[in-house]
Amino acid sequence: MIPENIKRGNFGSRFGFVLAAAGSAIGLGNIWRFPYVAAENGGGAFVLLYLVFILGIGVPVIIAELSVGRASQKNPVGAFRALAPGSWWPAIGGIGVLTGFGILSFYSVVAGWTLGYIVKTLKGDFLGGITGEESGAAFDAMSQTAWVTILLTAIFMLLTILVVRGGVSKGIERAAKILMPVLFVLLVFLAVRAVTLPGAGEGLRHLFSFEYEKITIQVVVKALGQAFFSLSLGMGAMITYGSYLQRKENLTVAGATVAGFDTLIALLAGVIIFPALAAAGVDPESGPPLVFVVLPTIFDSLPMGNLFGLAFYVLLAIAALTSTVSLLEVVVSYFIDERGWRREVATWTFGGLCLLLAIPSALSQGAVPWLSEFMGMGFQTLLETIFADYSLSVGGVLICVFVGWRWGIDPALEEIRRSGDRFALAPLWRILIMVVCPLAIAIVLGFTLWSQFWGA
Ligand code: TRP
What is the mean pLDDT of residues 291-303? Predict the structure, then answer.
């Protein structure tokens, strides 16, 4: 018989795992979504809440998901089935699989834009001076041309399919290992450039100054949703990754390291975008296009800017790819483990179906008016709100309830300690997972529902 760990494929090393899990976490969520959602939702107030949520909810929950995955060695549905046989919990895993599918659809549209920007830099579109306004027009020309944005989305989906088809350690690990550190160095460099732009101080103040009055229920929900989205939590991606993790690895250190890098990268992106925004005269509330409009103006202010731009978009596309791979992997591993599909077939089928769902998102940036105004926010933003903000938060409550009350904190701790980890913070973690996190998330969600239906 083939031993379990060889059959499923394992990460070669802790370093490889941390990089691959960080590869899932670090992506467009940090560089594209964090700056635009922060800019729309009160700047510093949002950032502070986000940090509180990462530390108080994100880190405990990532440890919980990893422990479920490693204990069960299964995809989200199988994990619940293995740890709570005969219950309705596997259905919750099913919602996670569906959420992964939904996120992948709108995410791959934005990922497609990064490919578009690679082409733009190759063509030299940003050479010789570009204003914020011209940059905005260039973005619109790309995102509002139906065939261009659909083609870009399709190419990105194809890349994702090709990586996922190859299986875990061959594809994901190898790419993540080399490229994430390079992206990090480039971001630090760009941050240094951005903070020395004229007017940078004002942008930084907007990012970091905390104004109590700016906290509304919408800001709180967005910060919570972004914390889950950025860490790839709440839908079982980390359960799936945990299932590939070897017993000797330290879960708590791995989880905290991933969260640390992820947060650092989001903050770096903020430090790049906020100062540059002011310098280029771009509207902070320009929504999803924000990063794509602002960045070319920074590259423009650098010697050999086009080359930096090219390097940046290539790395961003790869960061996005390590995230889309983790999203598709959740869906695919479910169909392989639970339904007995072949990897090849599952990958092509669900990658292809997801592309179909991505098309209305791709067309909702102005290419097709009724999709762009769908339910007052546009199809893509609607999917983002449903899947990123709500579904992940609900998933977060459920995973806490599952680990805290159904499977049990003690078996979870036993799994965590298998590596020899003492986990001195275990008593704190116990309270967080059993009481504080699920209650805090439920209260936030409850308030949102309440304000939707009965509030202003
Ligand atoms: N965390 C990724 C990002 O910030 C996106 C992502 C990948 C994700 N896998 C996920 C989000 C699973 C939620 C769940 O770009």
Answer: 89
Atom of ligand 1 nearest to the CA of 319: 15
Please give all residues whose beta carbon lies within 6 A of any atom in ligand 1, as ranges.
Answer: 24-25, 27-30, 103, 229-230, 232, 235, 237, 323, 326-327, 392
Q: For the residues 322-349, what does the mean pLDDT come to?
A: 93
Do 149 and 109 form a contact (C-beta atoms < 8 A)?
A: yes
For tokens 């050999």, name the residue.
304
Residue 24 Cα to ligand 1 middle (Å): 6
Residue 381 neighbours by CB distance under 10 Å: 20
How many other CB atoms are there within 10 angstroms of residue 46's CB atom?
26
Q: Which two tokens stand for residue 248?
A: 């000797």
Q: CA-to-CA distance for 253 and 424, rounded, in angstroms?
A: 12
Global confidence as pTM:
0.93
The Cα 53–Cα 59 span in angstroms is 9
5 CA distance to ligand 1 middle (Å): 25
How far does Cα 162 stand from its chain's mean position? 20
